[in-house]
Amino acid sequence: xIESNSGSIIVLSTKIMIMDKISKVRNTLMWITEILNxxxxxxxxxxxLAAKCYGSTRDLHDIDIYVPNESISKLEQRLDRYLKFGLxxxxxxxxxIVFMKLHYNGQQIEFGxxxxxxxxxxxxxxxxxxEIIFEKSVLIEFEGIELAVMPKQxxxxxxxxxxxxxxxxxxxxxxxxxQITS
Length: 182
Known about the structure:
- The protein is of the alpha+beta class.
- It has helices spanning 6-38, 47-53, 69-78, 152-162, 165-181; strands at 44-46, 63-67, 83-91, 95-104, 107-113, 118-121, 126-129, 138-142, 145-149.
- Strands 1, 2, 3, 4, 5, 6 and 7 form a 7-stranded mixed β-sheet that branches.
- Helix 4 packs antiparallel against helix 5 (165-181).
């Protein structure tokens, strides 16, 4: 229903913006999973996208993907024209990781070296080595694309330890989704 007042037009434009955002993520996932599969590179989706696969509804900032150390340089060469940062060591208050950041079709993608990834446990005040076991990835269909996703409990565990506001939000929604489906 389109009316002449500006309220209806705003609602319509909001729906269009949401559809653009969804299609941007979907198109990026189609593109990157095709490349990973063609290159025979195991991967594991983590972070906000993994949380969305398990029920989180917050806006997606980027797509976080772990790949093995022996594959990340080949991937960097293949994706060089999209590279915005890295492949470099990066450390801040939350992460100690070798990673690269790409932009494709307006969507940010971050590839982390699964063998070097550490995060800071806000409770114990220690650096924790992330244990990425690609064979334990859970295959989940997201927007019609099958993704290899970090196991739910592992995702919840590391988000609880990081304990940032986005992590708390994700955990709450993932656990709420569990209660509905249980």
